Amino acid sequence: MTDTPTPTRAEMLARIHEERMALDDLLASLDDEQFLIPGVEPGWTVKDLLPHFAAWEKRMIEWITKAQRGEVPEVPMTDEAVDALNAATWARDKDLTLDNAWQRYHSTHEEAVRIAAETPDAVLFDAEHFAWREGRPLWFMVAANTYWHYAEHREHLEQWLAEQG
User: Fold this and answer.
1) How far apart are CA 91 and CA 29, in angstroms?
2) Is 1 helix (H, G, I), strand (E, B) or coil?
3) How far apart are CA 129 and CA 141, in angstroms?
4) What phi and psi values does residue 75 have, to the nearest 5 degrees?
5) CA-to-CA distance for 57 and 52, rounded, in angstroms?
6) Could you give the CA distance from residue 157 to residue 42 in angstroms, rounded to a whole number?
7) What's the N-to-C CA distance of the chain in angstroms?
8) In the list 23, 57, 86, 144, which could disulfide-bond 112, CB 3.0-4.6 Å?
């Protein structure tokens, strides 16, 4: 990841938009029954993915907001920590209705895009701006919780749908 070329703000925002639209289009192609079939991710339904995206966008918004206030946010730095947050989010949200899961999915996206658009360049793109980031610029956080995240799960969903026939 550290050798990933730094995007411009316009490129980053375009990628967020493009990947979210690709995900939205794929989700729109499903019927309600397909949202409730387990297995798109181990033990998860497509419905479970909807609040999952919102949870990570919300975390990103909170982390960037705290960082801009001079605080050091508690960002998971290991796969185990990420897995634990995913498990906790799934346990909290697994019983949401499909309508409520959709509401969660849409609840944070606009704010996530806004923070990506308005965070100052020095804060977002300077790898040395925050010592706690250990040389990783903050835009990685944006990418990881938006367009990289959307693409990762969209690809899993496409593969799962192909396997479903």
Assistant:
1) 26
2) coil
3) 14
4) -100, 130
5) 9
6) 12
7) 34
8) 57
Higher pLDDT, 77 or 21: 21
**Token pair 């605080």: residue:** 71
**Which residue carries 């909170």 as its tokens?**
62
| CATH for 9-164, options being 1.20.120.450, 3.30.470.20, 1.20.200.10, 3.60.15.10 | 1.20.120.450
Could you read off the pLDDT of 88-142 as tens digits, one per residue? 999 999 999 999 999 999 999 999 999 999 999 999 999 999 999 999 999 999 9
Residue-by-residue DSSP string for 35-89: GG-TTSBTTB-HHHHHHHHHHHHHHHHHHHHHHHTT-------SHHHHHHHHHHH
Give CA torsion, residues 37, 39, 40, 42, to 10 deg: 140
Residue 65: which region, alpha, beta or left (left: phi > 0; alpha: psi -120 to 50)?
alpha
Tokens of 156: 């899993």
